[in-house]
Write a structure and sequence with these properties.
Elements lengths: L6 H20 L6 H5 L2 E9 L4 E3 L2 H14 E13 L3 E12 L14 E13 L2 E13 L15 E4 L2
Parallel strand pairs: 1-6
Antiparallel strand pairs: 1-2, 3-4, 3-7, 4-5, 5-6
Length: 162
């Protein structure tokens, strides 16, 4: 069954969904993690298929994030594309990081490796909250010029941390 939504309502829902994802990303750090998790529904599904991770509990997701934060040093984030509908928000980015510890469960590279990870998020939304977060990771050594060959749009937002 399809529900008709007028353009004003559709735009408002999409804007709300984007704002929710913005809040989530802005707080993906050790200090803000509670605010990042606050935008999840109680029945969150958090999945990272490339590393075989599937979590269905806010506390478990928080614990996983805290291990990830300790496991990496972020050098640069390049935000390539984002688009949203009433039910989904998709975000495509490149993270340039150095792996510091074993905190990335099932990571294909050992600590000490500088990586360029292409990361596409698919957020399923329900009533302004995230009910599913799928993170599709493509892990590459940063110095692998055969595999690190991304089409970066002129309007990409680049944030350098060091």
């Amino acid at each position: 069954m399809s529900v008709e939504i007028d353009a004003g309502s559709r735009e408002a829902i999409i804007a709300r969904n984007n704002a929710t994802v913005d809040q989530h990303f802005h707080n993906e750090n050790a200090d803000g993690i509670d605010l990042a998790i606050a935008v999840y529904t109680d029945d969150i599904v958090w999945e990272v298929p490339a590393r075989g991770l599937l979590l269905r509990d806010k506390a478990a997701v928080k614990a996983e994030y805290l291990k990830i934060f300790e496991a990496m040093h972020v050098h640069k984030i390049t935000n390539l594309h984002r688009f949203a509908t009433e039910e989904w928000v998709f975000d495509d980015s490149i993270f340039e990081i150095t792996i510091l510890t074993d905190g990335f469960r099932n990571c294909p590279f050992p600590p000490g490796t500088r990586c360029s990870m292409r990361l596409t998020h698919a957020f399923q939304m329900r009533d302004g909250k995230i009910c599913r977060e799928n993170g599709y990771e493509i892990w590459r050594r940063a110095d692998d010029t055969d595999r690190v060959n991304d089409d970066i749009p002129a309007d990409a937002k680049v944030t350098v941390f060091d």
